[in-house]
Amino acid sequence: ESLKVLKMFTDFLSFMVLFNFIIPVSMYVTVEMQKFLGSFFISWDKDFYDEEINEGALVNTSDLNEELGQVDYIFTDKTGTLTENSMEFIECCIDGHKYKGAAQDTDGLSQTDGPLTYFDKADKNREELFLRALCLCHTVEVKTNDTVDGPTESAALTYMSSSPDEIALVKGAKKYGFTFVGIRNGHMRVENQRKEIEEYELLHTLNFDAVRRRMSVIVKTQAGDILLFCKGADSAVFPRVQNHEIELTKAHVERAHVERNAMDGYRTLCVAFKEITPDDYERINRQLIEAKMALQDREEKMEKVFDDIETNMNLIGATAVEDKLQDEAAETIEALHSAGLKVWVLTGDKMETAKSTCYACRLFQTSTELLELTTKTIEESERKEDRLHELLIEYRKKLLHDFPKSTRSLKKAWTEHQEYGLIIDGSTLSLILNSSQDSSSNNYKSIFLQICMKCTAVLCCRMAPLQKAQIVRMVKNLKGSPITLSIGDGANDVSMILESHVGIGIKGKEGRQAARNSDYAVPKFKHLKKLLLAHGHLYYVRIAHLVQYFFYKNLCFILPQFLYQFFCGFSQQPLYDAAYLTMYNICFTSLPILAYSLLEQHINIDTLTSDPRLYMKISGNAMLQLGPFLYWTFLAAFEGTVFFFGTYFLFQTSSLEENAKVYGNWTFGTIVFTVLVFTVTLKLALDTRFWTWINHFVIWGSLAFYVFFSFFWGGIIWPFLKQQRMYFVFAQMLSSVSTWLAIVLLIFISLFPEILLIVLKNVRRRSARNPNLELPMLLSYKHIDNGY
Amino acid sequence: MAMNYNAKDEVDGGPQCPPGGPAKNRRPDNTAFKQQRLPAWQPILTAGTVLPTFFIIGLIFIPIGIGIFVTSNNIREIEIDYTGTDPSSPCNKCLSPNATPCYCTINFTLEQSFEGNVFMYYGLSNFYQNHRRYVKSRDDSQLNGDSSALLNPSKECEPYRRNEDKPIAPCGAIANSMFNDTLELFLVGNESYPTPIPLKKKGIAWWTDKNVKFRNPSGGESLKERFKGTTKPVNWVKPVYMLDSEPDNNGFINEDFIVWMRTAALPTFRKLYRLIERKSDLHPTLPAGRYYLNITYNYPVHSFDGRKRMILSTISWMGGKNPFLGIAYIAIGSISFLLGVVLLVINHKYRNSSNTADITI
Q1: What angle, rounded to 10 degrees, do the helices at A2-19 and A537-565 form?
Q2: Which of A361, A568, A702, A786 is the most exposed place for a label (fewest CB within 10 A)?
Q3: Chain A nearest C-alpha distance from B192 (Å)
Q4: pLDDT surpassing 80 at residue A762
Q5: Residues of A marked as binding for ATP?
């Protein structure tokens, strides 16, 4: 009895060994190689090369190539991603009076004393204070070009800063006559309009961060007054301005200016100052030093101190800086849209600025109906949450009414129906996501998501970095888990780049943090188009085919061996020789598929980039669904059966040779194996749409190698082998005419359904397009026009 | 098939790096490979190009198939089961194991004469020569004449490795179960006594097996001395050096033995037993008439429901009688041709109709 159990156990293990090839272990190796080698094509692409920074694309991971072809949602930063992030000082506003610089002359060299267009003058002192503030409140460093005969220092000043806004502002101030010369011995030196050097002792710098959205400096004038200058986003500065009535009115005027600027797509910053009495300074100084020295929770302590200091300030004015759209940003967004991708803009900027940028880059069309969920639309009501609830319900009703229920036609629907765009800001978002503890918060979220999914474009403004990641996570966890892609250039985008499936960094001006944390880094936003539409598409098709092909060829391989068990008393007798079993996946059939998965372009790259709709064809993992998988499995099962039973019927005779000699089981296996190797390789040849010399080399080379190896393996009595089972089997097999005829026949039968399918597809497609067919030829090759 | 490549010129576009510039030029190389613009051809399978292929394949396959089919039909083949399971069979008496040696005779008639060389096979059914543990139960280095393997056979041969403390030569289950019936053929002519048909026992094994893979051990004057220290396989009657009287067909290089050692692929199989060479062009090798087969019945198959057959067959360029290949060729050729016609009709119809409709099959 125990012997029987033992026998069952060993039989089970033997079958495991016999059939383990059906799990293609070599596939993992090939997939890894394909991913690793394939990713080089991205970094080699000269279309991703940018003259300005003298760099091409950077690939930090090779794991996500195919995900680039499956993206559903794109989250993009605005500044530095959609826009250049090369700032230009356009105008400023001092005490409600507007100053506009000669916008065209931006180099500032000839403009030091140049005439300024004053529409209306503010108080001279306020004006100077404002310009001094611009000159002092920054972290710009000066690089002096030490030219020997340069008479003046200012002639060759180069400003360097982590933020291009600051440079623009310092340059702007220079245009109005205040030049920042540099820091010497802890004193900031400013050349004023009268060419005098003013020195300010720099006491403290309260650094900029994305959460506070402002920065401050504390300086001591030559006269001994201690001043604090602060600049920052309006929402960060306005609440901290002195609450006097006069200030308030001023602030209103200022605010109007700021908003008008923002509508034009400018970035606005407000500048404020405050005088600090020496006593106060003592206290502040002590607190600051204490916070800086803190060993625990330093960040939080610093923040708290900063918060205390930056209060009760006086507003001086505001600046407007223009950020130009990047090259081809609009075309790229349009292409991505027509590729069926949903583009969400997540920015920390003001709503008006972001909105105008979105219009400029055609994320919103003029026909797009905008749904707004911002503090402005919600503020009007007393209870924010009620109003929010109302809005959400209303929008949902509107969208559901407009769209058909079925989600399948959603992509089509975009072109036919009214387009909707959604605008939401950070505070509203946090209201939706973490509103009061009652159960309605969950409800809000789901309604909000329903709205989001129906909108073609979503703009999220006033986002903190973590909120960006929160949104990405929210979309990522949607039903059907769509593939998300984030693209950004700055440190504030890192969290969303890390959160999304694919993170793309722009090698921008705000440092390299984003590029370093990303999966891929490209110099410009426009490169996203080729990266997704061409590279992503091709990589997806290649890897999908690779995976399917691997399962197919291993099923073909093992099925005859499985069928053979019915004819050998289920004794686990292998059909093929051990060398064939080992080398099938390693040598005979590995290189053709690897070459295919690296080089295949079933559609020309230029066509892919110029017709974004092609991207939709592979969306939703189209090539790895049940349908294609069943097709491949059916094909493999059919071919495996043909291989085995074809050879089986061939062996229903006394002899296959003209001298009546008889073949044994190893010849049987070798015939099956020969048909197998030729069929799976030729099947790949039928699938190849892009025949380079490499494809020719590996496909025909693999077959030649198989024949060569078989002769070699059977040609020698190998001293290290226990059994000489393959001795002269291959050569003897080829001496039979019947075997040749059978091999040709079986290969043809195996490939017949595939050829038929291709023909039917082509007849249908081509005749639908072009009823006049060309003259018949055996095989026509169309030359791919590959002009540069 | 015309295959030409249009070599792609390498065009180096874009401004060059300033000469002698200190910055490393990180511009990617503008080579055809790196830019994925290798010159390539795209095969397009259209109806216009594939339809003729269908016809051509049909036109090639059908004649080949007819040729094979006719050839196969011209091959004469007769199969005689002599297992003796039927009580009326003369060999029925040999089924009981204690009747050894057992002789039986089966009469049969050839309706048509067999011309050219005729081959005699024995066929076994329900005999799993391809069983895994059976297939591996042999020692090829022993069979190749290796003297150390002769006296110390491989472990694969267990349990037929040693007998009575002596190594078995040839060891293993395959050798142990060697077919040992003797078949003799007689023509019952017009004369009163029958003529024996001369059966040639050499030339039935693969040349490489006989001359390279199988070798008798070296040393010793006589074959018996060379096999000194070994014993015969358990089931054998005679030791290996007494398989045949001729020295070049004895021992491991006995051709009946070599043929047996090439394990069959399927449980029903035939193995070549003897050659009947044609005598002259004028007389058929085996004229039509009555024959009888003398069998020395040694090989027991009844215990596992096996069957034993004797087959006489002529041969052609494609081997023995095998209708499968011919029929398959004709069938595939016809299908291909028919599909070609169907597709041509569809295509033609389609071309004539307006180009708005979509073709559905």
Answers
A1: 140
A2: A786
A3: 34
A4: no
A5: 77-79, 166, 208, 231, 267, 347-349, 462, 468, 492-493
For chain A, which domains are there?
A: 2-41+533-761 (no CATH), 71-81+327-505 (3.40.50.1000), 83-322 (3.40.1110.10)
Name the minimum distance, in Å, from the CA of A567 to any CA of chain B: 6
Residues A189/A154, Cβ–Cβ less than 8 Å? no
- Alpha-helical (H) ranges within A310-409 are 329-338, 351-360, 375-379, 384-402
Q: A662 touching B, CB under 8 A?
A: yes
Smallest CA–CA separation between A652 and chain B, in Å?
7
B316 touches chain A (CB under 8 A): yes
Q: How many CA atoms lie within 13 A of A210 on its CB side?
A: 18
- Phi and psi, residue A273, nearest 5°: -140, 175
| Residue of A326 and B204 predicted with greater confidence | B204
Provide the CB-side half-sphere exposure for A672 (13 A, CA): 34
Report the predicted TM-score, pTM, of the whole model to 2 decimal places.
0.82
Query: What is residue A165's predicted lDDT score, i.e. its pLDDT?
Result: 77
Please judge whether B132 and A573 are an interchain contact, meaning their C-beta atoms are less than 8 angstroms apart.
Answer: yes
CB contact under 8 A, B129 and A693: no
For B162-185, the pLDDT digits (tens) are 998 999 989 999 999 999 999 999
* Mean pLDDT comparison of A99-108, A548-557, B50-59, B97-106, highest-scoring range: A548-557
User: Out of A659, A690, A745, whose CB is closest to B329?
Assistant: A745
Residue type, A16: M
CA separation for the pair B279, A303 (Å, rounded): 114
Distances (CA, A) of B243 to B149, B238, B258: 21, 7, 12
**Predicted confidence (pLDDT) per residue in A451-475, tens digit:** 888 888 899 988 888 888 989 998 9
| Cα angle A134, A136, A142; round to 5 | 105
Q: Do B347 and A767 touch (CB under 8 A)?
A: yes
Q: Find how far residue A66's CA is from the centre of its chain.
A: 11
Residue by residue, DSSP assigns A498-531 as HHSSEEEEE--SS-SHHHHHSSEEESSTTHHHII
Spell out where chain B has E strands. 41-44, 77-81, 102-110, 118-125, 162-163, 166-167, 182-188, 195-196, 269-276, 289-297, 307-313
ipTM: 0.91
The residue of chain B with its CA nearest to that of A657 is: B319
Q: How far apart are the C-alpha atoms of B211 and B202, rounded to whole Å?
A: 13
**Contact status of A660 with chain B (Cβ, < 8 Å):** yes
E strand segments, A430-509: 457-461, 483-488, 502-506
Closest chain A residue to B11 measured between Cα atoms? Answer: A788
Of the two residues A246 and B30, the one the predictor is more confident about is: B30
Segment of A107-116, A356-365, A418-427, B80-89 carrying the highest mean pLDDT: B80-89
CA A623 vs. chain centroid, Å, equals 21
Give tens-digit pLDDT for A69-91. 999 999 998 888 888 877 778 77
Q: Does B7 touch chain A (CB under 8 A)?
A: no
Q: Is it the case that residue B2 has pLDDT exceeding 60?
A: no
A784 interfacial to chain B (CB closer than 8 Å): yes
Q: List residues of A with catalytic annotation.
A: 77
CB of A577 within 8 Å of any CB in chain B? no
Residue B146 with chain A: CB contacts under 8 Å: none
A738:B318 CB<8 A: yes
A781/B44 Cβ within 8 A: yes
Per-residue pLDDT at A149: 46
- Contact yes or no for A652 and B324 at CB 8 A: yes
| Token reading at A768 | 């639908």
Beta strands at A214-220 and A226-232: parallel, antiparallel or unpaired: antiparallel
The residue in chain B having the minimum alpha-carbon distance to the alpha carbon of residue A738 is: B318
The mean pLDDT value for A200-217 works out to 81
